[in-house]
Amino acid sequence: MDLMDTTLNKKLGLVFVFAASVFLVINNNGVKASHNIYSRLQNAAAVEVNQLHRTGYHFQPPKHWINGKYDTNTNSPMYFNGIYHLFYQYNPKGAVWGNIVWAHSVSKDLINWEALPPAIYPSKPFDINGTWSGSATILPGNKPIILYTGLDADKRQIQNYAVPANYSDPFLREWIKPDDNPLVVPSQEMNSSQFRDPTTAWWHNGHWRILVGGKRKHRGMAWLYRSIDFKYWVKAKHPLHSAPETGMWECPDFFPLALNGRSGVDTSKVGEDVKHILKVSLDETRYEYYTLGKYFPEKDSYVPDNTSVDGRAGLRLDYGNFYASKTFFDPSKNRRILWGWANESDAADDDKAKGWAGVQTIPRVVWLSPDAKQVVQWPIKELETLRGQKVDMSNQNVEQGQHVEVKGITAAQADVEVTFSLGSLDKAEEFDPNWANLDAQTVCSLRRSDVPGGVGPFGLLTLASQNLEEFTPVFFRVFKTKENKHKVLMCSDAKSSSLRPFNEKLYRPSFAGFVDVDLSADKKISLRSLIDHSVVESFGAGGKTCITSRVYPTLAVNDAAHLFVFNNGTEPVTVQTLTAWSMNAPQQMNQSLEF
């Protein structure tokens, strides 16, 4: 089987609705569960529709459900003997959540994918009511193992394992669920309906350790379990970490990052040269948050730094449509990679059957910022192999109210990198003291791209119609605080993204995050946006702030989509450099997905 030979035949007329993913990259990984039930559609076959919004270069199956905004499950990546594996929750029979199996795809480059038969599906008492999220770990002897949440005959959430039937098969086509499952069950005092998503295991001082997400009353919990042999697990007296008033912690991920440089480290790495990250997905907000801190392996305790907090006021890996993410260590290139779900916007039930769906974001390399106060992200280098027609712009001055079109590329399927230069920061708006307790998204909703400012708003108008009836702006706005410091807001605003009536259930938020950048030195800031029909992934200031938006234009589709640079601030901005590429489709994207 050659993973790279098949030419992608991108068709119109197949329904695709996405679910959770589990990525198998031998060494570490995870998954999650929360579901709306659409019984009338669970076995509905794919219907003929015009897939204007189907992505061109993001991971997806040709049809049916693989993860959505409320039907989300973590992915658990794994790399094994030269092959990347992605396991993801999938309904092979219909367009919405139901009949869930662990689908399985493989790749040599994280870009081209070939589908294999499902790896896991409900079949035994310990998972007869569901095979939900989980993670992959590579055990000594180069032996992969999957931990996953099963829903047993009593509908308890319990933790099971599966192993390859043939370790010598490079594609690991068949997996076995031994009869000595489950490995971990909730104790009597625990909530058995809030106990899921085992993490990739790490090893220290003679014991394996995993986390399982949970909730005790309204306190989010990262339950800690230890094992000597990966078979018999004992719950620690205390969770690794917990936080009040945060609700259910789904899809936990716990991993180290090097204090210096961008190289990744194995999940079991501890020491003074690394900092640990604990990421959780909050079921109550449907957003993800993380803290950076110190892991004390001898005490099995994790203490967040005083620069990061738990819960809704905390740091986020992505400030947009992004949930149930998972990292894994890729030993072949010595990097840690993050994958997450770009969840679909709210849509009416009938739209579920038309392919309104979540997609997998482009894999991102992650590392620590130089001050070790946040995670930085950037799309994997392999994505650049899809770049096609290229256009450049340099030293382009953009005055207030101007829209400069970037021509010569396929604006609906593009990769854009731009650096803006600011002549002066003197005209920056005062940051209203009344906003002190507001999050960035609320501030963006008050100061959208059409609200004139001093320094900004300036940025890109993506997926724009010719006359700007529709557009998704990705932009910066610079404020001045009462301490005379500058505060940079980055927005990806879906409010104007579609002409669909507002009485339809279409989520059009003003996603935003503040950017930790000092503009006083060179007065420059960069932006990269990956545009793919209904997905806009944006990376501000070299990946310090990331925002993913799902949008559904009606006019700005395919060849009718346009891309503009804009400025709506009184201070002129200069496009110092801009390079944009048309993006080709992968040669192969799961064409052989037939069950």
Keywords:
single chain, 595 residues, mainly beta, seven-stranded mixed beta sheet, six-stranded antiparallel beta sheet, 2 helices, 39 strands, 2% helix, disordered N terminus
Molecular structure report:
The chain is an all-beta fold. The protein has 2 helices and 39 strands. 2% of the residues lie in helices and 43% in strands. Strand 9 (143-151) and strand 10 (157-164) form a beta hairpin. Mean pLDDT is 88; it is low at 1-41, 44-50, 68-72 and 346-356. Strands 28, 30, 31, 32, 33, 34 and 38 form a 7-stranded mixed sheet that branches. Strands 12, 13, 14, 15, 16 and 17 form a 6-stranded antiparallel sheet that branches. The longest helix has 7 residues, at 440-446. Residues 382-582 form the Glycosyl hydrolase family 32 C-terminal domain. InterPro entries: ConA-like_dom_sf, Fructan_Metab_Enzymes, Glyco_hydro_32, Glyco_hydro_32_C, Glyco_hydro_32_N, Glyco_hydro_beta-prop_sf. This is Beta-fructofuranosidase, insoluble isoenzyme 3-like. Residues 58-379 form the Glycosyl hydrolase family 32 N-terminal domain. Keywords: Glycosidase, Hydrolase.
In short:
2% of the residues lie in helices and 43% in strands. By secondary structure, the chain is an all-beta fold.
Note the topology.
Blueprint: E1 16-18, E2 21-24, E3 64-66, E4 78-80, E5 83-90, E6 101-107, E7 114-120, E8 131-139, E9 143-151, E10 157-164, E11 175-176, E12 195-196, E13 202-204, E14 207-216, E15 219-227, E16 233-235, E17 241-243, E18 249-258, E19 274-282, E20 287-296, E21 301-304, E22 323-330, E23 335-342, H1 349-352, E24 359-360, E25 364-368, E26 375-379, E27 387-398, E28 402-405, E29 413-422, E30 429-430, H2 440-446, E31 455-464, E32 472-480, E33 486-493, E34 510-515, E35 524-532, E36 535-540, E37 545-550, E38 562-567, E39 573-583
